[in-house]
Amino acid sequence: MESNATQAETADRSILPAAYAAPGQRVPARALRLGGRFRLTGIETGDFDQAETLGTAPLQLRLRSGGFAALFPYGTVVVIGVSPAAEEALLHRLADRVEGRLGAPAVVATEIEIGTGAKISGDVITVRDLSASSLYIVADALAKNAALAFEEEEVRRVLEVLEPFASDLADTGRLPRNRRRMLRTVGHALRTHHRLIERVEVEDRPELLDDGDADRLHDVLAHAWHFKKRAKALSRRLSVIEVMTSALTELIDAQREIRLEALIVLLIALEMSVYFYELFIRGG
Question: Where are the domains of the chain?
Answer without folding.
Answer: 2-128, 146-282
